[in-house]
Write a structure and sequence with these properties.
Elements: E1 3-7, E2 10-13, E3 18-25, E4 34-39, E5 46-51, E6 57-59, E7 67-72, E8 77-82, E9 91-99, E10 103-106, E11 110-115
Parallel strand pairs: 2-11
Antiparallel strand pairs: 1-3, 3-8, 4-5, 4-9, 5-6, 7-8, 9-10, 9-11
Length: about 120
C-alpha cells in the first residue's frame, strides 16, 4: 500500500521560510522520481519541483532560486525547502509519485499560507 505523508506546512509572513517533509512507504523509494505539486484556491494543481532517483532536480520557473527539493534515501523521505516565501506561494502542497503501471499517487496535502 502506497502512502505519502506530508508535514511542515503553516502560516508565515512574506520573506520567511518553511520546510515541507514527505515520508513515503509502500514503494521502492530509491528508483522513483518524487514530485511536489501545489494547488491554490481556484487554480489548477501545478508541478513545483521534482527530484530524480539520482538526485537531479527540476523546478517551476516561479520558484527557481527560492525552493530546494531534496531526498533522504535512509528515511524514504523527500523535502521541499521554501525560502523567501511570497503571498502567491499560498497553496496546498502535495507530495506525489508516479509509479509505472500503477499510476500517480498523492499525499493528503499540507497547507502553506503566506501573509503579506
Amino acid at each position: 500500500q502506497v502512502q505519502l505523508v506530508e508535514s511542515g506546512g503553516g502560516l508565515v509572513q512574506a520573506g520567511e521560510s518553511l520546510r515541507l517533509s514527505c515520508a513515503a512507504s509502500g514503494i521502492i523509494f530509491s528508483i522513483n522520481a518524487m514530485d511536489w505539486y501545489r494547488q491554490a484556491p481556484g487554480k489548477q494543481r501545478e508541478l513545483v519541483a521534482t527530484v530524480t532517483p539520482d538526485g537531479n532536480t527540476n523546478y517551476a520557473d516561479s520558484v527557481k532560486g527560492r525552493f530546494t527539493v531534496s531526498r533522504d534515501y535512509a528515511k524514504n523521505s523527500v523535502y521541499l525547502r521554501m525560502n523567501s516565501l511570497k503571498p502567491e506561494d499560498t497553496a496546498v502542497y502535495y507530495c506525489s509519485v508516479n509509479l509505472a503501471r500503477r499510476g500517480r499517487y498523492w499525499g493528503q496535502g499540507t497547507q502553506v499560507t503566506v501573509s503579506s
